[in-house]
Amino acid sequence: MTPAEALPCTLALPANFRVAELLAFHRRDSQALAERVEAQQLRKGLILHGEPACLQLEFDTTQVHAELRWQHRAGHADDGALAALLRHLLGLQQDIEGFEARHGGHPQLGALLARQRGLRVAQAATPFEALSWAITGQQISLAAALSLRRRLILACGVAAGHGLLCYPDARAVAALPAETLRQAGFSASKTRTLQSVAQQVLDGTLALDDWLQTRPIEVIRQRLLAVRGIGPWTVDYTLLRGYGWLDGSLHGDAAVRRALQGLLGSTQRIEAAQAQDWLAAFAPWRALLAAHLWAMSSTAA
After folding, report:
1. Is 188 helix (H, G, I), strand (E, B) or coil?
2. Which residue ranges does the record assign to the HhH-GPD domain (predicted)?
């Protein structure tokens, strides 16, 4: 396959697949630097196997039609690899049916699940994208996190085609001087953490892509927690967006707690410990429940 050729792939979608929420997640950056949504089409700039590319998805009522086009030279992707990427990106392997069957009759949650039946968690294209986005968003608002994300993409400046830039991979982030990240608005601690994880991906200490095959959740958790600047929220968010693991307890997420307060009809602010206790009953789907709470308040991070 030459760079001018597109690698195509078509997948059937579940009957209840919710395209609108997926597109809303990728539309969250109003400047559309690395993702552009038009009608039922998504274009996303990404780096796969070290090569910049543009992934185009077209949705109809029953299928998604994809094309992957390399910017310079063809990377190491074939039909099977592209199909696997699509299933990952769209969350098609998530056990949402089990969650809905188990908790559809819950007195406080049942009506929400009925309204949002079929909701899946949109996943990042790669685990590194999920991890770096989680680090970027630590303890700041979604708007502030999107601004930092935008500046990171611009600082790396990897063209994807179709007027888009790529979300950077570990190599692109590791190549940035610390001063560039600081000038982009990253704090000293986030700069240090981003550079550390990028370098550890390159030297194999954090085998993020390899872990996609077996998803050794506790190994991933312990390796990430060993990195200075990474705590439980960052780990659970990375496991959700990067690996499709649905049981991280995102009780530390402010948007989750606000939505939970509304769901429970409480006049009192829900604290992290209260949210943790309430979410515990919904294992092994605690992170999927968090996604329902995000969707309830339209603040998908």
Report:
1. helix
2. 136-298
- Torsion from C-alpha of 73, 78, 84, 89, nearest 10 degrees: 30
d(CA 201, CA 227): 12
Check: CB of residue 46 under 8 Å from CB of residue 66: no
- Which residue type sits at 92? L
Neighbours of 254 (CB within 10 A): 14
What tens digit of pLDDT does each residue of 273-282 get?
A: 999 999 999 9
CA–CA separation, 236 vs 17, rounded Å?
A: 24
Q: Residue 177: which pLDDT band, with cuts at 50, 70 and 90?
A: very high
Taking CB atoms within 8 Å and a gap of at least 24, the contacts of 81-87 are 82/7, 82/9, 83/9, 83/11, 85/48, 85/55, 85/125, 86/9, 86/11, 86/57, 87/11
Cβ–Cβ < 8 Å for 160, 166: yes
Q: Model's pTM, two decimal places?
A: 0.92
- For the domain made up of 6-95, give the CATH fold: TATA-Binding Protein (3.30.310)
| Mean pLDDT, range 175-199, rounded to an integer | 98
Q: What is the end-to-end Cα distance of the chain in Å, rounded?
A: 36
Distance CA 209, CA 172 (A): 16
CA 223 to chain centre: 19
- In the chain, % of residues over pLDDT 90: 89
Greater confidence (79 vs 167) lies with: 167
Domain ranges of the chain: 6-95, 254-297
pLDDT at 299 over 50: no
